[in-house]
Design a protein that fits this description.
Radius of gyration: 22 Å
Shape: globular
Helix content: over 70%
Strand content: under 5%
Number of domains: 2
């Protein structure tokens, strides 16, 4: 999408979103008409589109810096990129807030959602469209490779810290904003990649959360198993 947008002299975000939405249509069609699982279809289609973009990039003369497409350039974004980010973020937030309950039900129990009359096909394409819009928005900041970590890691952190969906949203936003601000600050003073710095910091938060999460952390799980072992041993001694 970025390469085609350059060739047609249109904004990169437009080309990326058009091709991203096209991939969503293809993914939905293949998923609905074959026995393949969704994650397999997504992996095949996304990597295929990405490889096709690399082929076009080698054949279409351009000044596109592939490194920035892959890893982002947050310090090089323009005012237009900021406006696009604000618009995309507003749309994404509005969809989540307006259809939060429907999306939550669809993600966790699509059969029940269909039984009560929700249009699950519409919810499916809405969710993937918002995802595509988010990826396109984050291209300038983290790049196509690191944006995957930006999508998955905050949610994983929130999932380890809370069982409530509303709190997960808040925690994921806080962890994302903190990592972006501190990662940018560290990258400036340490003279390192901004996108890489953000994701490394986010990954560090994830690793810390895995260890110290109050309910699902490794320390708590280990302590629980140890306590259970001591209790079982005590019961065995009493029975003896």
């Amino acid at each position: 999408g970025v390469v085609v947008a350059y060739a047609l002299n249109i904004p990169f975000a437009v080309g990326a979103f058009v091709f991203g939405f096209g991939s969503i249509i293809v993914i939905g069609y293949i998923k609905s008409n074959t026995r393949l699982k969704e994650d397999a279809v997504i992996g095949v289609i996304f990597t295929g589109f990405f490889a096709f973009g690399l082929v076009l990039q080698t054949k279409i003369p351009s000044s596109i810096d592939l490194f920035h497409i892959l890893f982002g350039n947050v310090l090089g974004i323009s005012d237009g990129d900021i406006v696009q980010t604000v618009i995309a973020g507003t749309i994404t937030l509005a969809v989540i807030l307006l259809r939060r309950r429907d999306l939550l039900l669809f993600c966790f129990d699509s059969n029940h959602a269909k039984a009560i009359g929700l249009n699950t096909q519409f919810m499916y394409y809405t969710l993937l469209s918002v995802l595509a819009l988010t990826i396109v928005t984050a291209l300038q900041t983290a790049g196509i490779i690191l944006v995957i970590a930006m999508l998955v890691t905050p949610g994983s952190i929130a999932y380890l810290l809370s069982d409530r969906f509303d709190r997960m949203l808040i925690i994921s936003v806080i962890s994302s904003v903190f990592s972006c601000v501190m990662g940018t600050y560290l990258s400036y003073h340490l003279d390192i990649s901004t996108g890489g710095s953000i994701v490394v910091l986010l990954t560090f938060l994830f690793l810390v959360t895995i260890v110290v999460a109050p309910k699902y952390g490794i320390l708590v799980q280990h302590r629980g198993r140890y306590s259970q072992a001591v209790l079982n041993e005590a019961k065995g001694t009493d029975n003896f």
